[in-house]
Amino acid sequence: MNLRDLEYLVALQELKHFRKAAEKCFVSQPTLSGQIRKLEDELDVILIERTSRKVLFTPAGDQIADQARTVLLESKAIKEIAKSYASPTAGAIHIGLIPTVAPYLLPLIVPSMKQQFPDLDMYLHENQTNELLKQLDEGELDCLLLAYLPGMEKYGHIELYKEPLELIIPSGHRFKGRDRVDLSELRGEKVLMLEDGHCLRDQAMDYCFTAGAEEDQSFKATSLETLRHMIAADAGVTLLPHLAIPRTRFTEGVEYIKFVEPEPTRKIVLLYRKGSVRRPCFNDIAQVIGKKVMATIV
Predict the structure, then answer these.
(1) Which candidate, 293, 209, 193, 286, places its Cα nearest to that of 243?
(2) Domain locations in the chain as residue ranges
(3) How far apart are alpha carbons 30 and 19 in whole angstroms?
(4) HSE of 228 in the Cβ direction (CA atoms, 13 Å)?
(5) pTM for this structure?
(6) Mean pLDDT over residues 116-143, rounded?
(7) Under CATH, what is the fold of the domain 3-83?
């Protein structure tokens, strides 16, 4: 039994599909299937009920796969301990980012990160919050860059920056030409929102509902860029995070307006598993990101 066999078993438990599990592990399906059978022979227990339609784990298979996941995490921790002593900012690091952060933050920080940490190989993964947290728990990701939410207390975090949310309106809106608006002035407005699963949706809804605004239930966007285009088409108003707003503050058909104090904000953090030995690396990364972003926000 080796760690690679355990990786095959864990992937198969997660995906319940031989081909998909093989693709995730970058091996052929016969290789993965053969190694699972060898593992069964070695352990002298049936792990999987094989049918023509689906993969069913036996009770023993489920329990062993759960333990295998723990073993793999511990194995990775051993490697990370050695790496952290050898060189904290060297080697591979897998960073997860949410879609409302990734396209706006990465162009800002990646050049500085490469300059500051030339020996750090960054692998960037974009996904929604719930999926990123799952990948962090399972050891597939080392840390996350996302908005901090209630329920994340079991993780360690480093605050990177507080990002203001701004109002985006069509160019013919009644707020046209205003420098700032009060959140309470949104009462009665129809607000376009992102689809379920985006943490920014929940944060924006909290602010808007408190102000007396209403969500337009007829449309839910998949991205901030879709929201921007819909506002330009005079479909309503919405809130955008500061980094999603052009530096020139100009987009055809829309206007961006700041809120008066206290303005709505979201807290962007670097999130990691408590006890991670890569904390020195996270500290260095956080310092570079925070410095770069704060210069932009200010």
Answers:
(1) 293
(2) 3-83, 88-298
(3) 9
(4) 16
(5) 0.75
(6) 93
(7) Arc Repressor Mutant, subunit A (1.10.10)
